[in-house]
Design goal:
This protein is mainly alpha-helical and 225 residues long. 24% of the residues are buried. Helix 1 crosses helix 2, helix 3 packs across helix 5 and helix 3 packs across helix 6.
């Protein structure tokens, strides 16, 4: 933990700003690790609570703005080329644009708090030419609230870990790694899904329903039901 604090004190604020900006652009970055690192910077005295919130807010706004402008201009050129090659897609694209220009701000708010798919929502904001006067106020407001809430969660978590035990951070990272490995093995069909989860995803993934559910029916010597 001490070595991590030294590295974060030297490079942390700049690296975290770049990482949170990348998160805003839709680049997959481990959000929990970022807020944990932010908490370490605050606990070490490198940042105040207010500076931490502003760092997250300004970085995510920078990332969202870059994505919006990129897809607003370059995305339209790509979309036009696609439609020239596949003109049958034009009606579907128009329906998506109509829906998004009407409900886009609501989608920005919703997916920011879900913490999943936010980058893609910003891409669509630019691609569908959501007006800037509707996009920027909503994006900035929700990012400010989100940055404040999650920054204090990260700061509080690191403080709690410090008081619980020095090995708690390593145990947490190990747990995350185990869960990630298990999810990967299930995705690769090397581990069976739990019975309840298999039943839940069966309507969308027929192959999942064919996996053994682990209910004991496949034990040697037991007759089938």
């Amino acid at each position: 933990m001490k070595k991590a604090e030294e590295l974060l004190t030297a490079y942390g604020p700049y690296a975290l700003f770049a990482a949170f900006a990348a998160l805003g652009m839709g680049i997959p970055v481990p959000m929990l690790v970022l807020f944990g690192s932010l908490g370490i910077l605050v606990e070490s005295g490198s940042l105040s609570h207010r500076q931490a919130v502003w760092l997250v807010f300004l970085a995510t706004v920078a990332g969202d703005t870059a994505s919006y402008l990129l897809f607003y201009f370059a995305g339209q050129l790509l979309l036009e080329r696609i439609l020239q090659r596949f003109p049958a897609l034009q009606p579907q694209v128009e329906r998506v644009e109509y829906w998004y220009r009407r409900y886009g701000p609501l989608a920005i708010i919703l997916f920011r708090w879900i913490n999943w798919g936010q980058g893609q929502v910003i891409w669509l904001s630019g691609l569908t030419r959501l007006p800037a006067v509707r996009f920027f106020p909503v994006m900035a407001a929700v990012n400010l609230a989100w940055a404040a809430a999650w920054s204090y969660v990260g700061i509080g978590s690191i403080g709690l870990i410090r008081h619980l035990a020095p090995w708690a951070a390593a145990a947490l990272l190990l747990l995350v790694a185990i869960l990630a490995l298990g999810a990967y093995l299930i995705y690769q069909r090397r581990l069976p899904l739990p019975a309840r989860l298999a039943k839940l995803v069966a309507p969308w993934d027929p192959q999942a329903a064919e996996q053994p559910l682990g209910d004991g029916n496949d034990l040697p010597g037991r007759p089938p039901d």
